[in-house]
Specification:
Elements: H1 2-5, E1 8-12, H2 17-29, E2 34-37, H3 45-50, E3 59-62, E4 65-68, H4 70-80, H5 92-118, H6 121-145, H7 159-168, H8 171-178, H9 189-199, H10 202-206
Parallel strand pairs: 1-2
Antiparallel strand pairs: 1-3, 3-4
């Protein structure tokens, strides 16, 4: 009963991948929340006061207590609302693998996608090469540590799934924009099929996670 009475407010921005990660976790857990759309050029006083260090979104407010930084917020959600789906596996080794590949995506794969989109000429060509190499590494890691991944419903979705769909759900639109495939059924079939399965879930469309 105490959880039902909790007041949850999320300060986010519609185009932010990091904001969408938190929205998706809240929806998957069935947590009712109020959403505050932020204009990053004209931030609300509430955001600035509640997140004085970074003054960034996403910011979660739970019963008046602010929690900042998307990964910190995701961990907080999973530790506070212990209902299914849990964002981490119970097995410590599997949990470690999730943390490792989430970190790899955040540090190695996600940023190079942006460089591919915005760079031109030789810089863009080099970024495409780097991106393909990094996604080959990700593909092999997913295939080795998470074989036969099947997503039938919300209970099959965890932290790694949230990071994958929020980060790469838009890969086909990116391909159309730049004329280059980074994620495809031939070179990255595991990752490609993982995204395809996630995009079939109604909750993905409900949160408007970037998709094709």
């Amino acid at each position: 009963m105490e959880e039902q009475k909790s007041k949850v407010i999320l300060h986010g921005m519609w185009a932010s991948t990091y904001s969408k990660r938190v929205e998706l976790a809240l929806k998957l857990k069935g947590i009712s929340y109020e959403y505050v759309e932020e204009d990053l050029k004209n931030k609300t006083e509430s955001l600035i006061q509640l997140n004085p260090v970074h003054k960034k979104i996403p910011l979660l407010l739970h019963d008046g207590k602010p929690v900042a930084e998307s990964q910190v917020i995701l961990d907080y959600i999973d530790e506070t609302w212990k209902n299914s789906p849990r964002l981490y596996p119970e097995d410590p080794y599997e949990r470690a693998q999730v943390r490792f590949w989430v970190s790899y995506i955040n540090q190695q794969a996600f940023d190079v996608m942006a460089r591919v989109l915005y760079q031109k000429g030789e810089a863009a060509t080099r970024s495409v090469e780097v991106a393909r190499e990094r996604f080959r590494v990700l593909e092999e890691g997913l295939k080795q540590h998470f074989p036969n991944k099947t997503i039938r419903g919300n209970d099959d979705v965890g932290l790694l799934d949230i990071i994958i769909i929020a980060s790469f759900g838009v890969h086909k639109a990116l391909h159309e924009a730049i004329g280059v495939e980074i994620i495809d059924p031939v070179n990255t079939p595991t990752l490609y099929n993982w995204i395809e399965q996630l995009q079939q879930l109604p909750v993905i469309k409900e949160v408007e996670v970037p998709h094709d």
